[in-house]
Amino acid sequence: MRRFVTLGFELELYAPCELFGLYWYLDILCNMQLQLQKEVHEKAHASHAAAVAAAQVATKEAQSGGKKGKKAAKEKAAKLPRPPVVGSLATHTALLFARVHAELCRGTCLLLAALERLGFLPPYDFEFMPLARRFDRRFAPFAALARPPPLSSAHFLHARTQMDASPIEALLSTAAAHFRSAKGRLDAPIKADAREDGTGLTPLQKAEAVAYAKVAVANGVLIASLTLKPPVEGSVAKLGFSMHPHFVVVSLAAPRPSVESAAATPSKPLA
Questions:
Q1: pTM assigned to the model
Q2: Per-residue confidence at 230, pLDDT binned at 50, 70, 90?
């Protein structure tokens, strides 16, 4: 499902008004993946704990059986199960990127919501297609899935209403925290070198991680600039994918001077 959505970014299928809903859905999908991994991890460790407890009981029973029992106890002790390793190295790398994706998606949703309320993003034109209908059509292929259950436009609009009720300052500060968290998760893996045992990021994965970090830094810098110095009146948000094909980077462009104002400005003499 995540690949289905991100492929749309690569094919340039999405309109700017859809970005909020896309990142909102991707954030939920990432957290579903992380929750499933957590459940598998907990079940594996619960099974291991039960096996260890059974082995300890068998060891005590063998120890109470004399010399033969002590010999059997040693054999039982040698057969204690090892702690489980849940997932391969590739799985753990995928989970790292899933956590980073969730942070970037959540931060981008909050940033876009704040910029829209500040007037830096043009409002959506509902004349031809309401945003709810556009959302349902975009994610219509997911309707055939039973697990996980598909999310409808009602879920999306409810989440959007809750976000719109938050103060703009809270949206920006929370978005900045998510971008910092994403960058922080990537610092150590990016700096670490790949080892002979297969641990560490491959060159391709490291390049991907660097691109994620650049997106987080760029959007974090924008938020810092908004809080430190108000932008020029009439500034417009520019959305680009120059740093990563799946994650938007936002910048603010000052309005261009009109022909009348440019003609009224006296030209400087040549040196």
A1: 0.80
A2: confident
